[in-house]
Design brief:
Layout (H helix, E strand, L loop, with lengths): L1 H17 L5 E2 L8 H11 L5 H13 L3 E2 L24 E6 L25 H11 L1 H12 L6 E6 L6 E4 L4 E5 H15 L6 H28 L4 H7 L1 H14 L6 H16 L7 H6 L3 H12 L3 H10 L7 H19 L5
Parallel strand pairs: 1-2, 3-4, 4-6
Antiparallel strand pairs: 5-6
Helix pairs in contact: 1-3, 2-3, 6-7, 7-9, 7-10, 9-12, 9-14, 12-14
């Protein structure tokens, strides 16, 4: 152990001497200097600690010796932005609504004209289930305990005539549609019925996917609250950044992201990618997931948790050949994401 720790500092010294002005940029092909891979592998086999890996890679990225991610470039730089929260009287709140009572905008949740709509989604059952789980009530309570807002952010729950979830910038509303919730639950039951999946198991998996979708939309809402001028660019160009921000929100709230949640999300993405006519879902259109995006999500979810990383590698969520890229990128982004959320933390 002592020898390996000394070796890490020797690596730092070599980097200063060999790379005083040039960066060893990591391309998508994952071409890293061998000594960087050695350091990450030492961490993976438990020879060095999480802290030692973090300090080592932070040194390399801060000194521009290695650089991985370009996708954070559209986020504000710490030196370029000063966020002023003039009021902290805003709160999160959620509403259950029926489409007949939505009225005229800006009532939360209104998406389409209330023409005759399908009753086969069992909206009453979905609403009873949501009220029973108290998922959104618990999230609202937790969010209000951790964040101070300059304006209210609403969570609209109801029928939309679309399988959708999105953030309405004009009304400051995160909208979650019952049609989407039903579709997720229905796909789980149909896909895994041959495996003997129970209604209860499908329900738990559905709630895990809703959790992922909700926090992604919450990231849009909070980013709009902090940096409204740039949010349109972020929404259009890089949903992956919103996933990164969503994970940071959860970390800031000290939420322990359970392995079973990401396994449920992985199962849902698999079903969606294999389902014909996936374009029928608005969420799929905008937030479609390929393996590359899911890999980044699994990487950030596992963070510097060595056991979880090994578990995700075993399941195939994090390919061994992308492990180094994964951890360097996570560490490189961590400080910036923490800075971004800090102005509204209580």
């Amino acid at each position: 152990m002592f020898i390996r720790i000394c070796s890490i500092f020797a690596i730092f010294l070599m980097c200063i001497i060999i790379f005083p002005h040039n960066s060893a940029h990591a391309e998508l092909t994952d071409k890293f200097p061998s000594w960087v891979k050695v350091m990450v592998n030492w961490w993976l086999d438990g020879s060095i600690t999480d802290s030692q890996l973090f300090q080592g890679i932070t040194f390399l990225t801060n000194n521009k010796i290695i650089k991985v991610s370009e996708n954070m470039a559209d986020f504000k730089n710490e030196k370029d932005v000063v966020v002023s929260i003039e009021s902290d009287r805003g709160n999160f709140s959620n509403y259950y609504m029926k489409i007949e009572n939505y009225g005229i905008e800006p009532y939360p949740g209104r998406i389409a004209t209330p023409e005759p709509y399908s009753k086969d989604i069992r909206p009453e059952k979905i609403e009873v289930w949501l009220r029973h789980t108290q998922y959104f009530e618990k999230q609202v309570s937790d969010l209000n305990r951790h964040f101070k807002l300059p304006n209210n952010i609403y969570i609209g729950l109801g029928e939309c005539q679309h399988k959708d979830a999105y953030y309405n910038k004009d009304s400051k509303t995160i909208i979650i549609c019952y049609e989407l919730i039903f579709d997720i639950h229905d796909k789980f039951l149909k896909e895994y019925e041959t495996n003997g999946i129970t209604e209860k198991q499908a329900t738990v998996m559905t709630l895990n996917v809703i959790d992922h979708i909700f926090y992604h939309q919450l990231a849009h809402a909070l980013y709009d609250t902090l940096y409204s001028l740039d949010n349109q660019k972020i929404e259009k160009n890089n949903e992956q950044m919103m996933n990164s921000f969503a994970n940071q929100i959860k970390r800031s709230m000290q939420q322990d992201s359970k392995d079973n949640k990401i396994i449920s999300v992985a199962s849902w993405f698999k079903i969606m990618s294999e389902t014909q006519n996936t374009k029928s879902g608005n969420v799929w259109n905008e937030h479609g997931i390929d393996f590359e995006k899911f890999f980044h999500m699994a990487c950030e979810n596992s963070g510097l948790d060595r056991i979880k990383t090994l578990n995700f590698m075993e399941k195939g969520f994090i390919p061994a050949e992308k492990l180094v890229q994964c951890k360097i990128k996570y560490i490189e982004q961590k400080e910036k994401l923490e800075f971004m959320i800090s102005p509204i933390m209580k």
